[in-house]
Amino acid sequence: MYILGASRHAKSVIDQLESIHLVEGVFDDNPEIISILGLEVNSPIPDTFSEDLPIHIAIGDNSLRKSISQRLPSGATFINILHNSAIVSKYARLGKGIVMMERTIVKVDTSVGNHVIINTAASIDHDCQISDFVHIAPNACLCGNVEIGEGTLVGAGSVILPGVKVGKWCVIGGGSVVHKDMPDGSKWIGSKNIC
């Protein structure tokens, strides 16, 4: 496989792999990064790759992850990287290019979009809908029937109560409790929508 991105998030992604030898190449647009976990980093990220190997975009920034995915050819194959301690319902639907870190839970009839990060010990309950390019941070909890719009960041340790709909490109601060719907582009800190 190819790994795109060589920053701190990429280290966490590579750490999920059964063997570092699964990585054929690592690419990053920053020419100052020359290695990661003993792997050589090539710069810049090319626009085309050999079609016989899958790609994983290991970039933590949601908008940058989307931008990189749009640069690649439509026929690119993206691989999911799921830690072996992740618990995923057989009735969950997963997109492509997802990473699930240690002790994550995805429950029944939940749909997870493309290029989503579900970070350490995050819990997503039944009937949730997670759109593309979302990041669910460590220890976040989505109760049942929650919707998360494209590109949204759900902060560490936050809780989204049942049935809440969160718009696109929102930011939810760490430790927040979201108890009502959020419009696109809004921010939530603590127990309040701040804009």
Automatic annotation (TrEMBL):
NCBIfam families: NeuD_NnaD
Chain residues that bind acetyl-CoA: H135, G174
UniProt record similarity statement: Belongs to the transferase hexapeptide repeat family.
Swiss-Prot/TrEMBL site (Increases basicity of active site His) positions: D127
SUPFAM superfamilies membership: Trimeric LpxA-like enzymes
Domain PglD N-terminal: start-end pairs: 2-72
Name of a matching Pfam family: Hexapep
UniProt-recorded name of the protein: PglD N-terminal domain-containing protein
Annotated positions binding substrate: S7, R8, H9, G60
Catalytic residues of the enzyme: H126
